[in-house]
Design brief:
two-stranded antiparallel sheet, single chain, mainly alpha, about 210 residues, 9 helices
Length: about 210
């Protein structure tokens, strides 16, 4: 993220608290993976604070950050959307989930063979990952995460998809070489909208969400 270890730590702690509130408010087991997303992303920012403190490099904090940001989220987000989505939307959501699984496998292999390296670049953190066909991997990642949200059929999740997609565009335009770090920070911040999504689903039972049209 931009700025400093302190910024990551404070932001991460605040987002994690909101994530915990999302989990507590969730009333359907199928909503828990997405409800926990701000908690996961908040923890991710806290891990990056440790990367700042260690001066970057390829140490355990960098490894943990890269695993959470890359293969884990590539599967977590589309799987969570599939669980929470209306019945009529689930078939189409298999596509971003499949993309996420393939992308996660490629990313996990890349991280195993060539560990990620973190570099402090002024007030930003850059991560170097050796990826084969990087453009295709990034496209698959974005389709799995942002794409799943956009085609979820849930208004609150579509909003999150729009915000994360816009954040990706801004992060690429302003911090191309630090894209992964800055976009993850942006996604963590906008994930707090899930608190409203969880609240809107209180009292909604699975049968009421089946679309017979």
């Amino acid at each position: 993220m931009c700025w400093s270890a302190t910024a990551d730590l404070v932001a991460g702690a605040g987002i994690a608290v909101i994530g915990a509130a999302c989990v507590v408010r969730a009333r359907r087991a199928a909503d828990l993976p997405l409800a926990a997303l701000p908690l996961l992303l908040g923890a991710h920012q806290i891990v990056e604070a440790r990367v700042w403190d260690t001066g970057g490099g390829t140490g355990p904090a960098t490894v943990a950050w890269a695993v959470m940001a890359l293969p884990l989220l590539a599967v977590w987000v589309p799987a969570g959307v599939l669980c929470a989505a209306p019945v009529h939307a689930r078939r189409r959501l298999l596509l971003p989930l499949a993309s996420g699984i393939v992308t996660a496998a490629v990313l996990a292999h890349a991280l195993a063979v060539h560990p990620a390296r973190a570099e402090i670049r002024g007030h930003t953190m850059g991560y170097v990952v050796d990826l084969p066909r990087a453009e295709l991997v990034v496209a698959g990642y974005l389709f799995a995460t942002v794409g799943a949200l956009l085609i979820s059929g849930e208004r609150g999740l579509v909003l999150l998809g729009v915000l994360t997609g816009a954040g990706a565009a801004v992060s690429w335009a302003l911090w191309e070489t630090e894209f992964v770090s800055t976009w993850c920070a942006c996604a963590a911040v906008v994930s707090v909208t899930l608190l409203g999504w969880v609240g809107s689903r209180e009292g909604v039972s699975p049968p009421e969400r089946v679309d017979h049209a």
